[in-house]
């Protein structure tokens, strides 16, 4: 019994060892990989096949071969054994106008078992005898150091060409591709890297038989881009502007240019030159005290560069958007009127208010004719709400934070407190100018500019939930100062900054208020649309902020599909929204 027990233990040990060996072997086996390419030459009617075989664990054996088979009409016409490494074969005894199939098959090793496997298959069609294969003619075109151009034509007497296309490779990375639809036309490829070798593969797909089967041949071209010479550059920084003088630092760099002559010009919005200096120091100052509109500072240079002479080339432009606070566009329901005359009817009251409030007048008197009672305008709806409704459509700098009335039945004395001090306006204007010079380019359309403002505000603001829940914690949250200098605001701050930036760009906009919320109206494509930068910037407790376009340039119907509770507003003044 003892001997039998020893034998049984030994047998179990052997089985365990064999099982472990088999498991480890199966886990360690690296299977065969096969990569094949083939190229058919219609002119010679021959096919070249190149297969790279990797068999690190010698799985290819006599009993388990790896074979390339050339099939025709379900009959194997060639059977070739493949070996580890590179294998090249030429099939030059092909029939014309015939369908062939190339199959590379062998075995994989899975779970201690060889299983048959097809590594590569391809069907190709040989050309009809007598057909003339198209000949591709290539011409390289010089365009620029980092731009490449070429043109192709085809000598194709039998009109067999079906398509021509190209692929561009940087090293082995495909960087561009496209079809060539116009023979002889220059194909231009932009955005190349300097000092880089590129491979251009041209493919011609052509018809080989009466059944319109096609095959493809390719042509390889190479080119190397050059190092691009650099033109002179200029930048303006450290700008200070107190509306009397503007000062800044000018930095210039000649780079590869020669005989460089710089000058700096101050131009108004009509491109009239107001002042010009030839810089002999890095600090430049201009007197801007008499300028009431927008203006630009242009750094201009004349120089020789890359074999050419350039004259009065603008290298850098810094734009100053002078917010002219009186509204520069028409409000359909309001008009500017002569305020020296008394009111002759109650409907004129809104126009009197608009004329004064839009100009930023903080103390004024309105007189009523004997047939009117001025107390009605202060004490009764809808007139009593008009000052704050009008406050929303004027520039935010002239919007009202407080209003006081002293009145009789004959006249009303009105005093107002504006939402911003002059110091706050100057600080906002300076910051807004800096931002707009960063996010706005000359090539932008008005809608591009609107989106740039929308995105900037959302990406640089955080809704102040604490202020919303407890007004005692609010600082600058109800004004444009909040986002610009604190990075947070409530809806009024979002709407104010949106309005200020859009008006600075001469884009028509104003604010709309409901009982609990404020957003913007923006004029684009001949219509007034809604834009709510607050609600496009939802509160996210954890993770990165979110930029949405749910409330971006939408109609009133679209707005009220999304929300009515917070976006229902008085239409006494604003009755023309799309």
From TrEMBL:
For this protein, the record's InterPro entries field holds:
CAP/Cytokinesis_protein, Papain-like_cys_pep_sf, Transglutaminase-like
What residue intervals traverse the membrane?
none
Any one cellular component term from GO for this entry? cytoplasm
Boundaries of every Transglutaminase-like domain copy: 437-533
Record's superkingdom?
A: Bacteria
**PANTHER family annotated for this entry?**
CYTOKINESIS PROTEIN 3
Protein name from the UniProt record: Transglutaminase domain-containing protein
Record the organism: Candidatus Xianfuyuplasma coldseepsis
